[in-house]
Structure formats: C-alpha cells, structure tokens
Amino acid sequence: MKKIILSIDGMTCSACSNGLEKYLNKQEGIENASVNLVMANATIEYDEKKLDQEQIEIFVKKAGFRSLGIFKEIRLEAKGRQEKRKLILFTILALFLMYVSMGHMVHFPSIPFFNPHTNPNNYVLLLFLLTLCFLIYGFDILKNGYKNLIHKTPNMDTLVSIGVLSGLLYSLYNMYLIWTGNQELVMNLYFESSSIVIYFVKLGRYIDGISKDKTKEAIQKLVSITPDRAVIQKEGKERIVTLDEINQGDIVIARAGERIAVDGKIVSGFAHLDEAFITGESKPVFKESGDKVIAGSMNYDGYLEYQAERIGKESTISKIVELVVEASNTKVPIATLADRVASYFVPGVIFLAILTFFFYLVFDQSLEIALTTFITILVVACPCSLGLATPLAIVVSEGVCASRGILIKKSEILENTQKVNMIVFDKTGILTYGKLKISEILLFCDRKEEKLMQLVGSMEQKSTHPIAKPLVDYLEEHHIESLEVEKFENHAGFGIVGTINQKEILLGNAKMLNQFKIKNSYLKEEKRLAKEGNSIVYVVENQKILAMIAINDIVREETRQVVENLSNHHIEVIMLTGDNEETAKKIAEEVGITKMISNALPKEKASVIRNLQKEGKFVMMCGDGINDSPALASADIGVSINSGADIAMDSSDVILTRNNLLGILDLIQISEKTLRNIKQNLFWAFFYNCLMLPIAMGVLKPLGVSINPMIASLAMVLSSLTVILNTLRLRKVKQL
User: Nearest to residue 24, comparing CAs of 49, 70, 56?
Assistant: First the structure.
C-alpha cells in the first residue's frame, strides 16, 4: 500500500468533501480516502500495483473536482488586492442594483432614465446587464454546481445554481413579455435576487477563506521558520545555496544572527541557540562540538560549522508539519454525524424545494410565489455552516496544539482525550528527566574503579537505554579509551550481554542474575541503595559479580503539579516501571503517586494496560523508551516525548516536542474545549436549518413571518460567520 496527499481544488462545502470521499472510496484499488475541506486536500491509501497518481487524479476529475498535485506545503490562500478590489466593485454594483430595483418601494428618489414605470425597457435592460456581470463573477459557482449535479454529488453550489438559474430563466421570460408590450410584468422580475444571492455566496467564501487561513497560521510559522538559503563549505570554499541544494554530510556554516538551515551535528565552534519553537525552553541553550542542532534555531552569538544529517522531508520541522497535516486529514468520530447528514441533506433539500413548488401551484398560488419559495428554500438551506462545524474546529485545535509543542497523529485523539480516566506513567525519562548520574560504585573485586568502568562504559556504548548515558559519560570524563565489544545482545527489561577480551560481560538488574542463574550475595547492599532511590546495575564477568553501580535520576519539576491536576480532574494515576520496588516507591512518594507497579518487563507493561482496559478504564500511557513501545501501542492513547526513542515515538499517538508533562494537561483541556466547540457548532448549524427551512417554505406566513431569496442568502452568510467566530475562540485557550 502507498499513501499520497493531493491538493484538491473546487470544494466549497461538506457535501463536496463527502461526495468526493465517497466516490474515491468506491474505486477499485483505493484502500482508504479521507478528504479535508478546510485544508483542501485528500489523503489516499492505494494499491500501487493497480493504480498510480495519474489514475487517481482522473478519479478526482470525474467526481467534479481538480487535483493540484501532491500536497507539498500548507498554502495560505491570502486574498490578493485584485480579489479584494473585485469584491469592493461588486459590493458597489450590488448596492446600485438594490437601489434601482427596490428603491421605489421605500420611496427613494428614482433615476428617471431607469424608472420602471416610465421607462420599463431601460429598467429591464439595466437589471439584465447588471445580472450578467454577477453571473460572470459567480461563474465558478454555476459551473461547479452543474458538474456536481452531473456526477451525482450535489453540493452547496448545486443548490445555489438551481435557485439562481430558475430565477434567471423566469426573469428572462418576463423580460421578453415586457419588451413585446406586456409592461405590467415589470415588477415580476428576479434579476436582483439572482445577483444578490451570488454576491452573498462570494462574500461568504471570502470570509471563509480568510478564517481558514487563520487556522493554518501556527503550522505555517513552523514552515517559514527555516531560512531560504544557507552557506555550505566545499573544497575549502564557501557557497551560498538554497535548502534543496544541501545534501547529507555537507558542512553548513551558521554565523551569529543566522538560523540553522537543516538538522545536523556540530563539528566545530560553539554558540548559544534559541530552540524555543521546538523545546519551549525560553533561555538560549549552549551548544558545542558533538551536539545536535535543529533547523530553525537562532544562533545568538557564535560561529558554527555543522554536518547536515536530516534534510528536506526528514527534518524535524518537516516531520512536525507532516504529522499535523495527516492528523487534520483524519476524522473525529463526531464528524461522522455531520458527514452522514450532509450526504443526504442536499438531495433532500432539492426534493423538498420541488415538492413545495408544486404544492403552491396545486393550491392556486401564482407561479411567481411558487418560484420565489422554491429559490428561497434552495438558498437558505446551503450547508456551509454544517460543513465548517467540525473540520474548522479540528484544524484550529491542531494549530493550537502544534504551537504548544503537542503533535497529534490522528485528529480522533482530540475527541478521545477527554474520555481518559486513567494515566499510566513510566518512571525514567517521563516522571524524571532521565538525566541519570552515578551516585555510588561498590566494588566486589580487587580491580581499580577505572578498569572496571572501562568494561562497563564500552558495553553501554552499544545500548540505547537511558541508564547507559552516565556510564558512557564516565569514560569521556576520565579520558578512558573504550574496548572492542563482540557478540553484543540486548535483553529488554533485564540488561545487556557481550564479550570483551574473550570474557563474557553481563550488565543488568537482579532479574538478569536470576535469568542467567548467577548467585546474588549482595541483596542487602541493593536494598540499601534502592531505598535511596537508586537504580542498580550489576557488573558480571564470567558468571562472577564484580561490582554494583547505583544510578540516580532527577524528578521533573512539573511532575507533582501534573499529578495534582490530574487527581483534581478525577483521573487516576499509576506509575509503571521496570525498576525495583524500593526505587519506584521513593519516586512515587516524591511526586504524589499512590499506586505503582514495579519490576515490569516490556511485555508485562502491555499486559497491565490491557488489564486496566478490561476493567473499563480508558487508558493513556506515557513512555519514552524502547521497552515502553508495546504499552504505548496497547493504550487507548499513547504519549511520548521528543527526547524518547524513535520506536516509542512511532508507537505513540501524541508526541510532546517540548519534553514537558504540562503538555498532557494542555491536551486534556484543548480536547474538552474542542469537543464542546464542535457540539456548539453542530447545534447552531442544525438549529439554523431547522429554523429557516420552515420559514422559507412559508409555514409562518399566517403569522406574518416570511423571507425572500436575498434575505435567505444573507442569513446563510451569517450562519457560517457564527460558526467561524465560535470556532476561532479555540485560539484563545489558556496555556497551563
């Protein structure tokens, strides 16, 4: 299976996106298609043996839309001066048209040359020419409406097109009769209605376009934070190149005041870098040779030469943008309600309008009244607000999350997070910083400490476990050369095994000793060190225990606040760790966790998660290591931090790029407010249609309440505006 994201042109409402999505999912070879109205793209999984991109784009065309190719970046469809001028011009024309056609009704002075009573032919000709201008202005609406009707995917444009063309044809017929002498029909023209409907639809789209762009700004800022050009060093010479010209392994130069162009590793120089956009750290971070740099970081004060490692789509920024875009293309469960309604809504409205039209004719109403009611129903029922209700809220929330260092892989997480009633935390690297240090070394042999640590550091250089870092750092701090390690094996949850100088070296916890049937005579020492909050590493050579190394960690400063907030939120908290009970208990007490599970192997962690789910718990798991990946995958929601192992981040649903647990509280708050906002949007969208449709049908005429097509089109705009303004409130969710 292969996945592509295509930019789609021509979608104007949820009926468009739903129709295209249904059409694509019916095609042989397409496994799954998801269409996003706000982002104007489609994510398509397909069998590359049966289809290719060109064939898929043909499907898009047959459905009545146009593919603009691969979705490369988030395009802000900012309204240019020309479009703005066009809107201003047609606003003036609309006002003039209203004055000419309706001014006499409110006793405004009429223009003698275009007076409907004294110069009816001039009056009719003027209305026709002005309407012709509006038809040209709204030709895209009429074209899309026709195409979508032909392709059996009627949408908002279809409703508008039928209504506008019905009024136009009726007016043209009456215009012919007027010009042939029947001048009493001069008040039976609907040119102005057709024109004003088009104007309000265009105005609504202009407002929609601006609001949609605002929802993408936070993501766009991530894209634009990297520089367009950079300086690379080749063959002793400096060259200015574009980012596309940088290859892996190139040496890139960053001077004070310049931004880092690509992810890489410093090979020369030192400087303070601002990485706040990724890490959230407000203070500049000191970087020197050997340290990693992230594209977009600002070099404050030094000269750096760094080797390009991750470029283009592989860079941190690109990965973040890709995750956000893919997440916004998935659908939250509540969106299925709007999708289901929208798919039946447009055909239902057309049927209702036709039924009402004939009802009025049958019950001796004039053709004029029947047609006016028909057009009003079609216009007032345009499902713009219904189409924007869910996707706009999701994109806004995705942008808010991205700006706060919370990357969500699937938008359904925004709905599901508010269901969480239990959060399971790993200890090392999650509740603690994972910045381990050696607190004590107990020797049980006659070797010197440095010789013993040479064995340990050499072995741990091949390990990815957080506990390996302080042991490897010992070699660097004491300038000790590492030894060659052979037959290296990683035993997840236990330790590591390897051969140095033809001797088997084993490093691990007490369970490792049991697995290899090694007698442990130092349980008393282990218990003492564990009580002090240490993790224990045994050093074994040829089945003999040489030493015990105690390693300690630092608790995150925000951990206690997070645990207290979750408890106040009625969410249970559990610590789940592979560490020994004494160490786990000390950390749990320090951060305020009352329930913990220690000595858990990776497969046991996953089993714990599944058992909690069987008890009816909706579980969020927070972990960062390779040993956490099974549990992250098993949890209802898996959360990893950016400094965690790649497999942990791949297994999780959410990545906290700022390595701060407060992101969990932010995510819960955003989730609650997003779901509430979507429900409000759907309520107003449904309420609007439930209220306006009966009025448009004339049900309330006996009470003196009725509307015409122009008022209907204005009401449609106001409905969409209500949803837009309500959704944009999500941008103001307070950060914890």
Answer: 56
| Residue 640: per-residue pLDDT | 87
DSSP reduced 3-state for 488: strand
Characterize 443-476 residue by residue with b for buried, 16 or more Cβ atoms within 10 angstroms of its Cβ, and e for exposed: ebeebeeeebbbbbbbbbeebebbbbbbbbebbe
**Marked catalytic residue, from 274, 339, 426, 553:** 426
- pLDDT value at position 321? 62
619, β-bridge pairs: 422
Residue type, 80: G
What are the structural domains of the chain? 2-70 (3.30.70.100), 229-314 (2.70.150.10), 406-432+555-657 (3.40.50.1000), 437-552 (3.40.1110.10)
Q: Which of 27, 56, 62 is nearest to 43 (CA)?
A: 56
pLDDT (tens digit per residue) in 18-70: 778 888 988 999 998 888 776 778 889 899 888 888 999 999 888 878 888 88
In eight-state DSSP terms, residue 433 is -
pLDDT at 330: 58
pLDDT beneath 50: ranges in the chain: 76-79, 280, 282
8 A C-beta contact, residue 56 and residue 45:
no
How far apart (Å, rounded) are the C-alpha atoms in residues 691 and 539?
76
C-alpha–C-alpha distance, residues 173 and 259, integer Å: 67
Q: 731, 728, 721: which is closest to 208 by C-alpha?
A: 721
The full length of the chain comes to: 736
- Looking at residue 274, the DSSP 8-state letter turns out to be E
Joined together, the tokens standing for residue 424 give 């399971």
Report the distance separating Cα 150 and Cα 141, nearest Å.
14
| 579 annotated active-site | no
Q: Is residue 263 within 8 Å of residue 292, measured between CB atoms?
A: yes
Contacts with 667 (C-beta within 8 Å, 6 or more apart), sequence order: 401, 406, 408, 413, 417, 639, 654
DSSP 554: -
Cα–Cα dist 472/534, whole Å: 18
pLDDT of residue 78: 45
Residue 243: phi and psi, rounded to 5, are: -60, -30
